[in-house]
Amino acid sequence: MTSTSSVRRAALLTAALAALAVSCVTTAKPDRPASGPGTSASASASATTGALEATATAPTTAPVEPDSTPTTTGSVETPPVEKVRDAFATLQATLNDSCAADCAYFLNRVHKELQELDGAMKADPKGPGHFPEPIQKIAELNKTLAGDSSYENLKKHEKLLIGTRDFINTWMQGHPDDYR
User: Fold this and answer.
1) What proportion of the chain, given as a percentage, has pLDDT over 90?
2) Dihedral sign from CA coordinates of 88, 90, 92, 98
3) Domain contains 98
4) Stretch 171-179: mean pLDDT, rounded?
5) Contact 48/27 with Cβ under 8 angstroms?
6) Is the pTM value of this prediction over 0.85?
7) Is 97 part of a structural domain of the chain?
8) Does residue 124 belong to any structural domain of this protein?
9) Residues contacting residue 68 through CB under 8 Å, at least 6 positions apart
10) Is 50 exceeded by the pLDDT of residue 64?
11) Region entry Disordered: which residue ranges (predicted)?
């Protein structure tokens, strides 16, 4: 009984080590040899050959990147628009900031976060009609800025920019299902 169980253990251990050895072998890339320090070319060649034979029957497929999926026209799709809750969270992160430290960075960040929230609201499955007031406030801000997001223009309209951010924060607080 003892010899049978020790033979089984030895066989299992051998199988496990063989599987581990095969999984640890790296195949050579076309532009560099598989041999590393302390290995000979013939040892790495035989290891590479064994690995290639072991994987020759396995199907090889490359993972598809979600942001590089080609369309039927051959162009690459853009990544999806940010979710409303994520865009709102990054806008909320500006609530404790001000122009005290780096005014240009702060104003540009608030402007960028408002634009991203606007895009997220318009792309939301509930539709842009679900967020009429915030979208209208951002449209009013954009009309006033007239496409000029320079520091000088943002500083000139700082009160409107920060007021839009604060209005949207208050509005969203009244609609918790939209950002949780």
Assistant:
1) 41
2) negative
3) yes
4) 80
5) yes
6) no
7) yes
8) yes
9) 76
10) no
11) 28-80
| Inside any domain, residue 71 | no
Chain mean pLDDT for the chain: 73
CB 94 within 8 Å of CB 116: no
Q: Which of 34, 32, 37, 30 lies closest to 51, judged by CA?
A: 34
Q: Residue 17 belongs to what domain range?
A: 2-28+39-55
- What number of CA atoms fall less than 13 Å from residue 90's CA on the CB side? 17
* CA dihedral (53, 58, 61, 63) positive or negative: negative
| Contact call for residues 144 and 154 (beta carbons, < 8 A) | no
Written as one letter, the residue type at 54 is A
Q: In which residue are the tokens 């007031």 written?
A: 133
The two tokens of residue 30 are: 């076309």
Q: Which two tokens stand for residue 69?
A: 């999926």
Give the pLDDT band of residue 39 (cuts 50, 70, 90): very low
Please name which of 138, 132, 128, 130 lies closest in space to residue 166, comparing C-alpha atoms: 138
Q: E-assigned strands of the chain?
A: none
